[in-house]
Amino acid sequence: MGEVLIKAEGVSKKFAKDLKRSLYYGLVDMANGVMGKSKTRNLRKDEFWAVRDLNFEVRRGECLGLIGHNGAGKSTLLKMLNGLISPDEGTITMKGRIGALIELGAGFNTVLTGRENIYNNAAVIGFSREEIDANLKDIIAFSELEEFIDMPVKNYSSGMKVRLGFAIAAQLKPDILLIDEVLAVGDLGFVLKCFKKIDQLLPQTALIFVSHSMPMVARICNQIVLMDHGKTEYQGFDIPTGIGLYYNKFSTSENSVLFDDGSLEVTSFTLNVDENNTLKRGEDLVVVLNFTIKSSNVQLVPSVYLEFRDKEQRPIAGAIIKDKKVEIINNALRYTITIKNIPFSLGLYSIDLTVGNFETKEPILRINNFCSFQVESTTQMWVPIELDANFTIENYTV
User: Fold this and answer.
1) How many CA atoms lie within 13 A of 300 on its CB side?
2) Among 184-188, 205-209, 255-259, which is the least confidently predicted range?
3) What integer pLDDT is reported at residue 105 of this predicted model?
4) Max Cα distance, the chain (Å)
5) Percent of the chain scored above 90 by pLDDT?
6) pLDDT digits 0-9 by tens, 294-326
7) How far apart are CA 167 and CA 144, in angstroms?
8) How far apart are CA 378 and CA 273, in angstroms?
């Protein structure tokens, strides 16, 4: 086990909702500090706990993922870890040089050029002029801003600021690296480049990563803290459990009709799930759809497309159901659709429904989140598809 580089013990932070009252409380706390009095532990009028009684430690070689809804206290915690604000209660211990990318453009002097900001930011972290000189070319090359490095930062786009900020924070190989959601601003190519760099840094770095992208969290984190209104709701090394609890906060059964030309109506539907709306992984999923034709414009049996989405509403699979030119005998149609041996891992899934004209391919009806169901599995994985694999294991001589 690596040495502990980040340790938070009983960390709490409170704020006032009203600006004037916040300034007043700040002056009172400052005066009390000068006189040697401790800060009040109780909430005053209009105050609330942004972070309450957080405890964790991160060792060298570990990555802690901070997840939770907007306003859960993640960014406030990161600011305390970076020394921008101090906790009202508890202690924070940080060992080594700290690289931070916690707000878009934070720490940049917008009047100065990108090159000048590299020297400023690296000096604040604790690097000498000689160390910055030795790494300058690598920082500029990693940021891919060679053409714009001598342009004032105020003229940079948000993506360019992220490139420069991450290049400074990571290329100098800090002992501690703090990363907020700002990576979401970068393009896909640069994000992949950042994660490759994080993989290289992680064995010698303690990393705290804040993100709303659960695939990113699962990609690099080996422990997780789920925050809710400043408190810890889940903490541990079981990443899928933490991610699953996060997803459950945002699950919804509401559907939305994106298109309906009035030609047909879904009169009823059923899924072969149990009373808990659950299907076991590996079982067949049977969807029965009953339609009523309401317009003579639909003379041939329409095609149906089912699109399956995971907990993050990413499309993961699709099924197209269409037949040859079959005329409609009466105004009622029943589709019985069987998806064999469904391979989804444990979790909640939704189905989008699209009904289209067989000949023209034009849509007749489109409903997002038409229905949803749970998959039960013996293992918990953050990926939506759990593949069955045949394998052999044997000893061999090197």
Assistant:
1) 14
2) 184-188
3) 62
4) 90
5) 51
6) 988 888 899 999 999 998 888 999 999 988 888
7) 9
8) 17
Residue at token pair 């009709």: 257
CA distance 60 to 58: 7
Instruction: Kindly tell me the burial class for residue 171, based on how many C-beta atoms sit within 10 Å of its own C-beta (0-12, 13-18, 19 or more).
Output: buried
Long-range contacts of 356-361 (CB under 8 A, 24+ apart): 356/302, 356/303, 356/304, 356/305, 357/298, 357/300, 357/302, 357/303, 358/300, 358/301, 358/302, 358/303, 358/322, 358/325, 359/300, 359/325
Tell me how far apart the alpha carbons of residues 209 and 221 are, in angstroms, rounded to a whole number: 8
List beta partners, residue 209: 65, 179
Exposure on the CB side of residue 339, measured as CA atoms within 13 A? 21
Q: Which residues, at least 6 apart from 345, have a Cβ–Cβ distance to it below 8 Å?
A: 281, 375, 377, 379, 380, 381, 383, 384, 385, 386
**Four-CA torsion 244, 245, 250, 256, nearest 10 degrees:** 40
Assigned CATH topology for domain 4-248: Rossmann fold (3.40.50)
Within the chain, which residue ranges are assigned CATH 2.70.50.60?
A: 256-376
Distance CA 106, CA 102 (A): 7
**Is residue 389 left, alpha or beta, with left meaning phi > 0 and alpha meaning psi from -120 to 50?**
beta
**pLDDT range class, residue 253, cuts 50, 70, 90:** low
The domain 256-376: what is its CATH number? Answer: 2.70.50.60
Indicate where the chain has its CATH 3.40.50.300 domain(s): 4-248
Q: Determine contact, residues 237/223, Cβ cutoff 8 Å.
A: yes
C-beta neighbour count of 31 within 10 angstroms:
10
How is residue 164 written in tokens? 């420069």
